[in-house]
Design brief:
Pfam families: Abhydrolase_1. This is Alpha/beta hydrolase fold protein. The chain contains 10 helices and 8 strands. It is an alpha/beta fold and 279 residues long. Helix 4 packs antiparallel against helix 5, helix 4 packs across helix 8 and helix 5 packs across helix 8. The protein starts with a strand and ends with a helix.
Length: 279
């Protein structure tokens, strides 16, 4: 692990995987996990010559909390990481709650992004014309409702609803994928690390994703974007990616008919190929 300082003195925890000196890809993890979250089969990175870079968003793991942060605010943190690692132009991707943060970086720093990919990504809470909670798993609907009522209500809701236990946060349809030994081992470690210092990261993430405006317009993204979504996803219904694809100028949407939310694991190798320039 490496610790990087932001301009306002916060700490960001960063991890690297794959090939040192390889082609850099910056990854934004889902909610609520940590920098230890990633595609768990390392050969996907080593065989492609990828230097995979992950980080704890503020409040998760070893990264200092940043209460009140919006999705757009994390873009500057990602830029600080890129500066510290001397990265000039590179691919960016994110899964689920990490997807909006990957898009935020692309919107704010297009000159530094070659391509951006998001898998099972949420749309903005204030997305015009989108019924945001339609077809959504009840647990996420409840969190969104609590987040809309503010930090105090959300904090109480998450404390009562969690434990936290990862399996309790996912519908039964997702259990088969996360039960795969490599996935389960990685997710357990990534989930536990997320709560090293409490629930601040989770609370701030849900407020940013479920209640606050993102702080940027997806229509302003000028770099190529690939969106992937499983049509059986109930954690983040596929209508979210439909909405994003209709608004991002250079966007390609891939919908997987038989996949749920956790299907993003199996979609990662093709996503990596696309990020590296294979269409």
């Amino acid at each position: 692990m490496r610790e990087i300082k932001t301009r306002d003195g916060r700490t960001l925890a960063v991890e690297e995987w794959g090939v040192p000196g390889g082609t850099p890809l910056l990854y934004a993890h889902g909610t609520p996990v940590s920098r230890l979250a990633r595609y768990p089969y390392d050969e996907a990175f080593t065989e492609r010559g990828i230097r995979q870079i992950t980080f704890d968003r503020p409040g998760y793991g070893y990264s200092t909390a940043n209460p009140g942060r919006r999705v757009a605010d994390v873009a500057a943190d990602m830029a600080a990481i890129a500066d510290a690692l001397e990265l000039e132009r590179f691919g960016v991707y994110g899964v689920s709650g990490g997807g909006p943060h990957a898009l935020a970086f692309a919107a704010a720093y297009p000159e530094r992004v070659s391509r951006v990919a998001v898998l099972a990504c949420t749309a903005p809470r204030d997305a015009e014309g989108l019924d945001w909670t339609a077809d959504m798993y009840q647990g996420n609907r409840d969190s969104a409702t609590a987040a809309a009522q503010g930090r105090e209500v959300l904090t109480a809701h998450l404390a009562a609803a969690s434990g936290p236990n990862l399996k309790d946060l996912l519908p039964e349809a997702e259990q088969a994928v996360i039960a795969e030994p490599a996935v389960a081992s990685m997710m357990q470690a990534a989930f536990a690390e997320a709560f090293r210092n409490g629930q601040d990261g989770w609370i701030d993430d849900e407020l940013a994703l479920y209640a606050l405006p993102w702080g940027f317009d997806p229509a302003d993204i000028t770099v190529p974007v690939r969106l992937w979504h499983g049509e059986r996803d109930t954690l983040v219904p596929p209508a979210h990616s439909d909405w994003l694809a209709a608004r991002i100028p250079d966007a390609t949407l891939v919908r997987e008919p038989d996949a749920g939310h956790a299907g993003h694991f199996r979609a990662t190798p093709s996503t990596l190929d696309w990020l590296l320039g294979a269409d």
